[in-house]
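We emphasize that the prediction below concerns an isolated chain of 341 residues; any contacts that depend on oligomerization or on bound cofactors are therefore not represented. The input was used exactly as deposited, without trimming of termini.
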Amino acid sequence: MRWDGQKLEQDAGVLPGLELAGLVRTVRTPDFAGVTFHEVRARTALSHVPAASQVPFRWTVNPMRGCLHRCVYCFARGTHRYLDLDAGRDFDTQIVVKTNVADVLHAEVQRPSWAREHVALGTNTDPYQRAEGRYRLMPGVIDALAGSGTPFSILTKGTLLRRDLPLLADVDVPVSLAVSIAVLDDELQQRLEPGTPTARARLDLVRAIRDAGLPVHVMVAPVLPWLTDSTDHLDRLFAEVAAAGAQRATILPLHLRPGAREWFLAWLERERPDLVAGYGRVYGRGSYAHREYRAWLTSRARPLLARHGLDRSERPDDGLRWRRREAEAHDVAAEVQPSLF
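Result of the prediction step, given as a token string:
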């Protein structure tokens, strides 16, 4: 792959939010048309989650900021505003890459003070988005965590995870793998998540994880009112997930944090204007679907999950090591975004 880049001067007037974040150079390539990569040298890799948050982990690692998956609903969109970038097109095309993340992480987890607490990957943007094929940051991240005896989890939509399955199968620490699959219909999936692998490709990834002898959990997230919450869609999706070998699945309704809210509602106005009023009723002025909708979705999904054997609780003997309350963790993570970098 040909990469043409140049070093940016501090007074270039580009990305003022990055001036203090170790910006080294900007890279553009025909292989990623319309995308700009901003390579930075991070001073830290581990990000601490405030103790007051409800997520079941205290540490995260995010090798990149911004995401080529381009999911119109992504709750992390608002985080690009901390870089003086917009939460819409910039989030999709201005990707910040922490090129030294593995080296920095290795140094951090080797400190005597490191308590080997669980580390979550995929809490902000996807560590296996397509650019990981070029930068290859995750093997070093995995080596650093596993080599220090640190348990970790990965949540992804990216089939690039398949590349690292042999490495993950050999680690001697508890590892949790989860694949996000929310939309079974190819046409709708490409409209909502135009940069992601198809649902079929992700189901194949679930099979590959199981073939590698690793447990896997599927996050059916987000579930979108009137688009993906029908009994027929959920039943068909759960059937495919079970057939692929996942032990469990969890549903999570769409939430619309600032940044994501504006981008998604603009998409809805273009693509499904007939649903705009309904979303106004379900979400009002807030970020989360109202309580009645959440209760209704849970009651609809519960018997379907049971029918397909995807409602199993975590047990010590089933090989699953995903921390408890993973759905709530992913949901609440939106509330603590500034700490997840």
